[in-house]
């Protein structure tokens, strides 16, 4: 079934894409299984590494085309997209080099027995990525899977499939065998069919916590390997002794850089009471100055949201808040799914805006009295993906980091995701880690082999 894609920032037609049905998923899974047991199985680790480096080179060589395609398809500022594309390239390079770390071990057990272990690919992997970072998140999943020797069936969101499809084309162009990388743009119903498919050995998913829970249920019978990177309501803690000239602009970036459409966006700003009013005033002034507009304009700092429907959902959180909206908070006139950077001061701790993932350019700002209250507020949500701590006291920074229930904690830095740094969540933000060498374990099985090295011993049953 063909679907018409539109640019979120303008509403103009962008491309027509054929969405996969269940028959197309069947074909993709068969192709992945055939490659796994055929051509891809014969490729040596050194050759896999070379192919991943070649794919990284191809992404870099086509970065102008890919960046424009992504910006137009997602509505995101091209300055942000270029940074995401650069990370996608580095992800493939990281795992191309990480192949060298895949190794078993050996040990004599005493007597005439020797043990050794093998690391083998888990098999055919269904990989489902959302619309907010289509190419970058595809690289988070495809690169370690291929490094481990798996084959993949990648399902991008039906709204944003263009760069994933181009990634598959480039994989073929650099010599990765047919069937190793398969892309099936599809809706949720077909995605559910892919997850349940008997030919799929592992499912990796990035998206909402609700959908992640449903995927776990679908994978429970038959039992499949699962890794989930889910939602977030990440805290950003500013103590009074922090360098506010650094902390406030960085806090603005941490929520507005992708129009808040990011799982680890620091959407809860917790500020020590003595500097609360000052921080709110500075943040409000900065938010009002963010340049929102044409995603392809190099000066644009924030583009549109993914759709008008999503913009309306984001606005619903703001419209019902019991806090003070100090800037933004209104749907602008004109075409495109734009929403202004919005600051909400002193919302109720139990309000939806404080507890639920808004997934838009909205930050709620809450005061705290002391370190214990800051930690309590930081942990007072069902998520635990990312947190940031701003303080002039190094000991406090490390102490608070150890008390926050979050997969990643930044101390005096807003940045969150780098190749080589494991990324993932606590609590309902999911499980499993991406971007690190640990990620390879998600795509590998360990096989233990026992070998008798000496003469035949006595029959165990004495027969």
State the gist of this model:
The protein has 463 residues and is α/β, with parallel strands linked by helices.
Task: Please tell me about this protein's structure.
This protein is 38% helix and 21% strand. The chain is an alpha/beta fold and 463 residues long. The strands form 5 sheets. A 7-stranded mixed beta sheet has the order 12-13-14-11-10-16-17, sandwiched between helices. Strands 7-6-5-8-9-19 form a 6-stranded mixed beta sheet, with helices on both faces. The chain has a 3-stranded antiparallel beta sheet with strand order 3-4-20, with no helix packed on it. It contains 14 helices and 20 strands. It folds into 2 domains: 2-230 and 429-449, 3-Layer(aba) Sandwich (Aldehyde Dehydrogenase, Chain A, domain 1); 235-411, Aldehyde Dehydrogenase, Chain A, domain 2, CATH 3.40.309. It has helices at residues 22-37, 45-61, 63-74, 78-98, 134-147, 162-173, 188-196, 209-219, 244-256, 276-289, 308-319, 352-355, 371-379, 394-403, and strands at residues 2-6, 13-18, 106-110, 113-121, 124-128, 151-155, 181-183, 202-206, 225-229, 235-238, 268-272, 324-327, 342-345, 362-368, 383-384, 386-390, 408-411, 426-427, 430-431, 444-452. Helix 4 (78-98) packs parallel to helix 5 (134-147) and helix 9 crosses helix 10 (276-289). 51% of the residues are buried. The chain is globular, with a radius of gyration of 24 Å.
């Amino acid at each position: 079934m063909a679907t018409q894609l539109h640019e979120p920032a303008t509403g103009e037609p962008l491309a027509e894409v054929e969405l996969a049905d269940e028959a197309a998923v069947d074909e993709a899974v068969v192709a992945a299984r055939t490659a796994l047991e055929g051509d891809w199985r014969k490729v040596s680790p050194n050759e896999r590494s070379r192919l991943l480096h070649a794919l990284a080179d191809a992404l870099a060589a086509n970065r102008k085309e890919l960046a424009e395609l992504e910006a137009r398809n997602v509505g995101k500022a091209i300055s942000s997209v270029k940074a995401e594309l650069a990370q996608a390239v580095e992800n493939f390079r990281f795992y191309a080099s990480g192949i060298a770390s895949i190794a078993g071990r050996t040990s004599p057990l005493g007597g005439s027995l020797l043990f050794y272990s093998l690391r083998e690919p888990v098999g055919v992997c269904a990989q489902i990525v959302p619309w907010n970072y289509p190419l970058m998140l595809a690289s988070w999943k495809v690169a370690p899977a291929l490094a481990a020797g798996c084959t993949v069936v990648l399902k991008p969101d039906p709204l944003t499939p263009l760069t994933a499809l181009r990634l598959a084309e480039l994989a073929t162009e650099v010599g990765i065998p047919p069937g190793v990388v398969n892309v099936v743009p599809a809706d949720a119903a077909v995605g559910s069919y892919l997850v349940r498919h008997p030919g799929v050995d592992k499912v990796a998913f990035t998206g909402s916590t609700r959908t992640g829970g449903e995927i776990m249920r679908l994978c429970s019978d038959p039992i499949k390997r699962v890794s989930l990177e889910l939602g977030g309501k990440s805290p950003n803690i500013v103590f009074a002794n922090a360098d506010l000239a650094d902390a406030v602009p960085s806090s603005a970036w941490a929520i507005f850089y992708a129009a808040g459409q990011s799982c680890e966006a620091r959407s809860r700003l917790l500020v020590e009471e003595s500097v609360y009013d000052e921080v709110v005033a500075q943040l409000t002034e900065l938010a009002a100055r963010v340049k929102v507009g044409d995603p392809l304009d190099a000066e644009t700092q924030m583009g549109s949201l993914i759709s008008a429907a999503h913009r309306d959902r984001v606005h619903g959180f703001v419209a019902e808040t019991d806090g003070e909206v100090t800037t933004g908070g209104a749907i602008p006139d004109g075409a495109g799914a734009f929403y202004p950077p919005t600051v909400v001061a002193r919302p109720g701790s139990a309000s939806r805006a404080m507890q639920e993932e808004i997934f838009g350019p909205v930050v709620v700002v809450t005061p705290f009295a002391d370190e214990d209250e800051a930690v309590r507020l930081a942990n007072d949500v069902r998520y635990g993906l990312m947190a940031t701590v701003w303080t002039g006291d190094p000991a406090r920074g490390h102490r608070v980091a150890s008390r926050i229930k979050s997969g990643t904690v930044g101390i005096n830095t807003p940045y969150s995701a780098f190749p080589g740094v494991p990324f993932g969540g606590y609590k309902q933000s999911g499980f499993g880690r991406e971007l690190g060498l640990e990620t390879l374990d998600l795509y590998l099985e360990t096989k233990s082999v026992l070998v008798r090295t000496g003469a035949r011993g006595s029959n165990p049953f004495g027969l």
